[in-house]
Specification:
- Strands 2-1-3 form a three-stranded antiparallel beta sheet, with helices on one face.
- By secondary structure, the chain is mainly α.
- Among the domains are: 132 residues, no CATH class; 38 residues; 95 residues.
Length: 408
Amino acid sequence: MKKQVLAVAFLGLTTIAFAQKKEVKALEKAVKSEKFAQTPSLIAAAEKLITNADDKTKAKFYYLKAKALLNGTNLKAMMAALETFDGNGASKYAGEIKKLKASTALKLVNDVVSNPKDAKANEKLYVAYQLSGDQDYLYYAATGYVGKKDYKKALPLYEELKTIGYTGEKTQLKAYNKETRKDDVFPNKVMRTLAIKAGTHIKPTESKTPSVAGDIIKNIAYMYVETGATDKAIAAIQDARKKDPTDVNLLMTEANLYLKLGKKDKYQSLIKEAVVQDPKNATLFYNLGVMAAQEGNAKEAKAYYQKSLAIDPININTNFNLAALILGAEKTIIDQMNSLGTSAADNKKYDALQEKRSAMYTEAIPYLENIIKVDAKNKNAAQTLKGIYSALGNTAKYKEMKALLDSL
């Protein structure tokens, strides 16, 4: 009796094993002939039986399943293939799966390069990252979502970049090109060595591209602000600053965050801290000038603008703001002049005010002229100078500005 039961049981196992191999063989045939429309149903049929299969049959099935999923166009299916790899990569097909992942990742990236407007470009880049482990693809996907202002999808990718410590730094291999008299960048040392031996290049050097770690933190903070999570934004920046307290860019990001939140005192405090760390940064002094001007502190604003111009004398915005600050007193002077009568005392006051106005115009002229030197077609500066020269009675300069405006 026992022998009969064993015989029946053995017969059942043999039948199941045969069915497993049959389903796997059908899947293999479809994959080899690239009939991927058939593979979903074949995968489903084999999966019902594969649980109790031997390791060899399982390994083959998971490899074929992965290959079928990755040769399609369904990104969700590709992500499902990743799960297949994660659970079953340690087999005799591990090497083949590794090659398959790499080739599929490259295909996805090439798709994006050839069609950057592809609606699924960022999804493809993310799947390419998952397949290859190339962190650059994760960064490209994250920045792509930011470009589309899809912060919901971008934020977790940036958080992942922060977690893995991505910097984006690359070592550039350079050599001086004798013909162009510029440095050329080489893909590897072999190519550079060949160029030097050929005599076309000299002076090999190596340099690193700038880190984007600070930009990642900035974007995380920015997205938190945009989504209303300001506390998280501040925490993210402050955490980053603890790790790198001398990074002026991070300090500026925190300052701009407080400005966006309307906390001007905190903004000014951080900008002043940045000035201490980077005293030759013209933009910092300019920002302090703008803030002081907005608060009605003309004297302080003027001092900051002048410090900015001492570092960057041809900056259009700074020159324009300083000229506007100086000319801001014009209305008050003119109102005072218009309010005077015709008495001797009033005439004397009028002459003093007129002299004061002329001095104001004279003080503003150099800054407006600096703008014209940099941007000869700047209508605002030319129009203002035309009015000033007219008021000062400088006919030659007036005609010069008039001719400039007429030519624009």
